[in-house]
Predict the 3D structure of the following.
Amino acid sequence: MDFILKQQANNSEARAGLLKTDHGNIETPIFMPVGTAGSVKGIHVRDLKEDIKAQIILGNTYHLYLRPGIEIIEQAGGLHKFNGWDGPILTDSGGYQVFSLGDIRKLSEEGAKFQSHIDGSRHLFTPENVIDIQRKIGADIIMAFDECPPGDAEFDYAKKSLELTQRWLDRCVEQMEKTSPLYGHQQSLFPIVQGASFPELRETAAKHIIEIPSDGYAIGGLSVGEPEKVMYAMIDVVCPILPKNKPRYLMGVGTPVNILEAIDRGIDMFDCVMPTRNGRNGMLFTSEGTMNMRNRKWADDFSPIDSNGTSFVDHHYSKAFLRHLIVSDEMLGAQIASQHNLAFYLWLVKEARTQIINGTFKDWKGEMVVKLAQRL
RNA sequence: GGGGAGAUACCAAAGUGGCCAACUGGGGCGGACUGUAACUCCGCUGACUUUCGUCUUCGUAGGUUCGAAUCCUGCUCUCCCCA
């Protein structure tokens, strides 16, 4: 997996790059739609590719392991064959579930004991078996198994947590070396910087992971409850330490504004459930600001969903019709909203890339951040 | 014609002397959502008021009572059964 840095923006840390994988190239900065259970909720693979223009999607180790089970995915010949997406796939390791399922798991040196949220059955994730699972899923990018502490974690806890994450990372690397891809394409491990909201921990973490030769580096444990300012500050601490010639992935972020701010600070890759989840819940992101489609004011607005939008749905359906679908709880409403939001997110990062290459990113970003924060 | 049941807020439906401006659900109106336990969750929903609070409400007109959505009487309307 190669990364080519195409262009560094003027008076900004923003970069335009090209990440080459065995399943195709990824132009960065990029947004990666989240497909936890192997499916980007409500979206056909064809629309992901042709309409939304996604270049890489996510899957989740924890969810796929519980259902359908890794044996099934192996039998299918890997997740690409199973879900019909032939582009690159990144899998999260389940580290985030250590955070989000906090009530039903226990951490130890060995790993994390989980109870399934589906049936309560007990399972153990270790750095080793999480690598094995991701090998079997066939992810192009495999995430290290980490602990993601909450944004308000105390220093002592955050420090211990980070040290555990670092030891787990070393075990992930070892397991990667001991194992090989099963389906003939290359798989790369991305280490993850933790350290909660403490600059000194973030710095330590970043310096630790760059000792490990990797095709990319991730920043985790942000947008988990801490103020946005803190998130940006942590990015500012970490990015300068990370190697320039490798992609940087900010995990789980975020709002359109978050993404532009992070690109400005040197981040290349993003993922977030926001476009799909908020879409299902009736919220649209556009280049002019956000819209809550449940609001009465759209009831008789027969103009296109987004006249600036790049998706088929933006021009084919009206705001009033979409509102009707969402208010009526019609599943097509959730699909249209998700498709629009994802297309918008992909447009946003592509436009950012263009602006970086043209040398106009900083000004453009300044204007966009104001517009994006508006409520329509 | 005879017998029975019932009328509560936008709808449905609890409440049958004071804890009732009135349970609950729906609908309506807002809000939240960041490596997805989420097509989910949270508010508000008689009027005026920032809050405290005040005022007007339970078909309608009277009455009993310190006090009535709740008890009594008349009236109006609706539904069901039998002819």
User: Anything to note?
Assistant: Residues 331-358 of chain A form the longest helix (28 residues). Chain A has 15 helices and 17 strands. The first strand of chain A starts at residue 2 and ends at 8. Chain A has a mean pLDDT of 96.
